[in-house]
Amino acid sequence: MKLIINGRLSINDVAMAARGEATLEIASECLQKIKLSRDVVESIVKEKRAVYGITTGFGKFSDVSISESDSKKLQKNLILSHACGVGDPFAPEIVRAMLILRINALVIGNSGVALSTLKMMCDMFNNDVIPVVPSKGSLGASGDLAPLSHMVVPMFGIGEVYYKGERMAADIALKKAGLTPIELTAKEGLALINGTQAMGSIASLAVTDAINLLKAADITAAMTIEALRGITDAYDHRVHLVRNQVGQMKAASNLRRLLSGSERVTRQGQLRIQDPYTLRCIPQVHGAAKDAVGYITGVVGNEINAVTDNPLIFPDKGDTISGGNFHGQYLSSVMDFLAISLSSIAGISERRTERLVNPQLSNNSLPAFLVKNGGLNSGFMIPQYVAAALVSENKVLSHPASVDSITSSANQEDYVSMGMTAARKARQVVDNLTNILGIELYAACQAIELGEGKLSPVCEAVFKLVRSKVDFIAEDRYMSPDIAACAALIRGGEVVNVSESIVGKLD
Fold it and tell me: Is residue 277 annotated as part of the catalytic site, yes or no?
């Protein structure tokens, strides 16, 4: 696929290009805007006007004048000095998203970057030269300085990259790809690193995954409802209409569609009067997360098409204004919100798993830990432990980063967002939730096979999908690969796809 970069990307565009075979191309309508903003920068340098980051130093050094002869050295020094991140490197898909988002912000024409620099970034992406970027070191204001600097350093032939999946020195990779290192000119270094695109890349992928996971959570819940002969009256549309919460109505509608045609589900009074909260209140819990993710998606969608560097150039009047669009509070807040919302989904999923494996909670309709000859076999005892451990970890990860701040640059930059911390935490919660839902799906299929009765068409299709990867547990065996397989079916979208192929698009 070819992704045209024009300042108007969708989150789905970013995720698909970052994770699939894609090439980047700058939209033709952006070329004149790029030139006009660059002309403003060059006139500032020629006229020796005092403008932050163009003819001055950075941060606390903003009152230090820089000569025209030193302007190139200033930009290179900026990148080299700021490329000091630590920790494990980001996955290549995150760095690909960083490149996409940074180019997307710069083509809008308020940043003053030369077209040749933007083309170099596209060439690196298109030739699979992906910078190695350490994951820790950003305060989320003035933007993601350290990670974005690591993204830029290989353009000089310095640092490391993944070239076609192999980690190597940047100069070697550029040579293999037929690319020549570049030299930055006035303002370019600052424009390349002064923004929210590192946390924004994580946010884009996390939101994409969260939308899939919320659908998968409804599906895994439906499988558990089938296994426990749940009462469907709680999902009656009238119940949710009078609550007046959109996400709740969507979740209940999904459950009704997913369970339609089942002979295992029951009505109130048929076996029992009402179900416990983990079954009865699925629409309320899942619905709250759906509404939260809807809001989060809007904020992230705005941010990935924003100009977030400093100073900003307005070519129509030749103005250059220092502001604070690099401040990551929007992303910091919504990534905390995402972690909290998905942690609730994880918590109720783990409680459903416990209800499957615990005969006291399944009304003795299922054997302890979903295995025959218990005692000799432990069955699903420890998968529930694993889910519980991940739920507990999510509680720690849900502690907000967005309310924290540590001053920097000699108190010039005295209130920061910690947006990168929030984004990294949210990504870990996404990964944990994927495994927790995988465990519920694994257990639900085992429980279904231990019961009797016709499943709904959707649940039957999901059951067959799981059984194509994971067999019934007749006696204890090595279970980790089974959990990984179930989680992969959720992560890759197969569980959602097979369901939507039957009932249409889920909400």
Answer: no
